[in-house]
Structures are given as structure tokens and as C-alpha cells.
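Entry 14. Ran structure prediction on the chain below.
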Amino acid sequence: MAEIRIAITPTHSTVDYERSVVAAGGKPYVLDLTSSSPVPLLDGVDALLLTGGGDIDPALFGEDRHPTFQDAEPGRDAAEIALVLSALATGRPVLAICRGVQVLNVALGGSLIQDIPSQLPMALNHRVPTPRNGSAHQVHVSAGTRLATLLGVAGTGGHVAVNSRHHQAPNRIGDGLVVSAVAEDAVVEALELTDHPFCVGVQWHPENFVASGEFQSLFDGLIEAARSHRK
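Output, C-alpha cells:
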């Protein structure tokens, strides 16, 4: 059986992302985003995995920078937006994690809450750095969504405990996306694209659970969808 190649966008550490892809039966391929034209990097790969990282420039959704803005690597915003739009246009499966789901939302015309603590002072603490696989809060997964199916709560939806290391979140939802999970404070925790074979984004970090396997089904679903796309 031919290997299923998963393109992973670079971040400060891709180890857990790569391990999660391998555990699902895929071959990870960390992209080099220094290329002047990132889209050809998807040639020969079967799916796209968008990783966590710094903040997206709010100019991309028509806002000034909040004082807490933490810039991502130079050129990363434009490269990742181009990659996700190309992946969606070609039917490639997409799994978007933390910053990744924010990139997905902005790429499709959405906006972000730039700083949860200052803009939503009654919100939960969404920035719990350690332990990396610790439970920070719960999210409610909507029944009938692809995310619910992947997490085994398809019929009724349900609450799932997640880790959390983000200070931003989707605000205005991008074209075609639906909210598939929210935290108890109503902060959006997951999005998916309903008219695409597989496009799922979550705000938490499922890759940090690779040793225990709590969220391995997200990566399994990505590989399964990539295999179907190849046929």
C-alpha cells in the first residue's frame, strides 16, 4: 500500500504532530515555508495539517493589532492561507490545530477575538501551558458534526476535557464553516467545513496526547480521508 503523505506546516516543534501522523499510519512531511510560492509544496502530498504558533496579523481581517499581539514567523500567514485555500480547492483533507483553526477561519473570511482575557474578561482561562496534556477545561461538541463522529459522541454530542494554550479564538465565522464545539464560556473551540470531504479544526492540542491516545481519532480520520482522496 502506498504511503499517505501528510504535509505539516512548521512551528517551534513538530515532534508530537509527526508522531501523531505516524501513529495513524501516515508519513509526515514538514514543509519549508521559505519558498516564494508555497502552493507547489502540496504536490505529491495527500493532506494538510496546520499547526499551532504565533498570532495572525489582524490586518488580514481588517483590524489593528491588539497590545498582546505576538507575531508568527515572517511570511507564515500568507503561506498558510495560500496552502489551506489550495488544499480546499483540490479536495485535500485538512486538520487545523490551534493557530491552524484560526488560519482556516481567516482564510475563509472570518475574524478573531484577538485577546480572550482582555476582550472577554469573564471567560475561562484558555492559556494553561503545563502540563501540555493536562485538562484545562471542557468543550461541548455539537451532535451530528464530523467532530462528534470522530470523538465518538455523534448521536447526542457531549462534553470532552481538553488542554488549552491559546489567547485568541474565532469570532466572525468564515464562509461555509460551522461551529462544532464551544467551551463553557461560549468561546469557539472547533470549526468544520460541511461541504468538504474532511476539514476539521480544533483550538486545543490533540497532538500532545499521542502517548495516551485520547484524540488519536482526529489523526486517524485525517489519514482515512487522505486515503479516500487518493483513490
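The mean pLDDT is 96. Will compare against last week's run tomorrow.
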